[in-house]
Amino acid sequence: MNILGYVRVSTDEQADKGFSIEYQKKYIQEHCRIKKNNLVAIYDDDCSAKNFNRPNFKAMKIHAFKKSNHIDMVLVTRWDRFARNLTQALVQIEKFREHGVEVNSIEQYIDYNQPDYIVMLSMYLSTSHSERLKISRRVRECNYAARKHGKYTNGNPAKGYYWKKHVKGEESELLIDTPIANKVHESFELFATGLYSADRVRQMMAETGFVMKKQSFLNMLRNRLYIGEVHVPSYNGSKDEWVKGIHEPIIERPLFEHVQELLDGRKRNHPKAKSKVVPALFLRNFLTCPICGANMTGSFSKSRNGSRYPYYHCNHSGHQRISADTANQKFVQLLNSFVPDENVLELFSLVVDDLKHVAKHDITKQLKAIDEEITGLNKKIDEADDMLMSKEIDKDTHKRIVSRHSQCISELMDKQKFLKDSDMKAIQEKMNFTKNILTNLGDYFDEANTETKIKLVGSIITQKMQFLENTYRTAGVNEVLAKIALIPNELQSMEKEKASVSAGLSTLALPLGLEPRTL
């Protein structure tokens, strides 16, 4: 008799109880030697028996079903090594029998020639199935209790953490992996600036060796484990919740909450208009004193005839005081001096056209992929129909398969409809509007309301400004705008001064103070 052996373990506990791979192999080898059977090969798996999605089990089936191999039996030490799922096990055993291959156990042998063999077989498999359910329930209860007390129980720790190696009997401990944790913290800090999208931060971090996939990076920015909390899933009617963990946090709570606000779109990088905004003093939050470096404030001065005139001034007596009307007017003139480079605008138009073409091509490609996926799912439903007719699966299993695939098809069809309805014309209109703003930035700014002006200033000027001799200077201009427009050299003169004072440091940072100048 030609025999294929099959052995399986899923936990270290099984190995400790005498169910190790080597033990099972020797048991089957010795049994075949005594029975004088031909042991062709032994296949082993190191995974759960809750289903048959096991790589070596599949390889064994292919071997056994090939007629030229003349396999007579698949042999296991006990039935719980074969399966812990009653329904699926009976289906698999029937498949083997249809190909002329018997499945049996050394310790729990089944005589298929007896009419009541199905009773004993079902009893053995039911016992294994019941044991799996009990184990699963105990694991869930233990995990729930552990998480309630703040212990993280997932197998793979989040980026920046690692499991402390421990000897048997000691509890595992989640510790901080300092080099990776520093990268995680840097990612949060970069995104918290509000200057970069999450994907741009991911790309920047990848250049430093911290590589993550797009969705994994977003999940990392959302993971409350980094602020020392542990998620407790719902169990037995209780609601899921986050509790204080026993591990050390990597991210400070204020930083984490700020990142969540940015992700949710509840916060932007530019200053928000206050509840009471003075239209004539919209630059108040963006100016610093060239003498002491302090933030400028604004107020009105009353003349002898009762007229009120707005001024920006430093709170330190004797320092800078300038007319707000003059400063505001010069700022509008400054924006008008941002002359868009014709070559860049032409390139911008070409890029827009190319993006339209790429978007259209991408949509066509996605629609084709969706069609293929829907065809594949329909094919799977047809296969499930055939399996039901051949009694390979029961009606309940067939219903679940068809329901799952039908739901997927419905979702794909909704996505398909959305892609077909994509309005390329609207995209073109937005692009044209953007180009028009770039060309007439000063005029657009001058006509905007005060709140919009504040947002625009915050978007255009990334650092504080100083106003000297009717000229603005700043250490930072929006990077994209700087590349599209020809920015006056004097605007960024503070950057040059900083570079000359502190060679090697970032030229995007404003100096802590400036030498006093004669106004």
Give a verbal description of the structure:
The protein has 519 residues and is α/β, with parallel strands linked by helices. 51% of the residues lie in helices and 13% in strands. The chain is built from 18 helices and 15 strands. The strands form six sheets. The chain has a four-stranded parallel beta sheet, with helices on both faces. The protein starts with a strand and ends in an 18-residue tail after the last helix.
CA radius of gyration is 35 Å
Mean model confidence by pLDDT: 80
Shape: elongated
Number of helices: 18
Helix/strand/pairing class, anyone? alpha/beta
Distance between the termini: 105 Å
- Which regions are unreliable across 5 or more consecutive residues at pLDDT < 50? 269-275, 495-519
Strand order in space, largest sheet: 2-1-3-4
Q: How many β-strand stretches? A: 15
Helix content: 40-55%
Q: What does the largest sheet look like? A: 4 strands, parallel
> Percent of residues in beta strands?
5-15%
List keywords for this structure.
single chain, 519 residues, alpha/beta, three-stranded antiparallel sheet, 18 helices, elongated, disordered C terminus
List the helices and strands and how they pair.
Elements: E1 2-9, H1 12-19, H2 21-35, E2 38-46, H3 55-65, E3 73-76, H4 79-82, H5 86-98, E4 102-105, H6 117-148, E5 161-163, E6 174-176, H7 178-192, H8 198-206, H9 214-222, E7 229-232, E8 241-244, H10 253-263, E9 297-302, E10 308-313, E11 321-323, H11 324-336, E12 339-340, H12 342-389, H13 395-420, H14 424-439, H15 441-447, H16 450-460, E13 465-468, E14 471-474, H17 479-484, E15 485-486, H18 493-501
Parallel strand pairs: 1-2, 1-3, 3-4
Antiparallel strand pairs: 5-6, 7-8, 9-10, 10-11, 12-15, 13-14
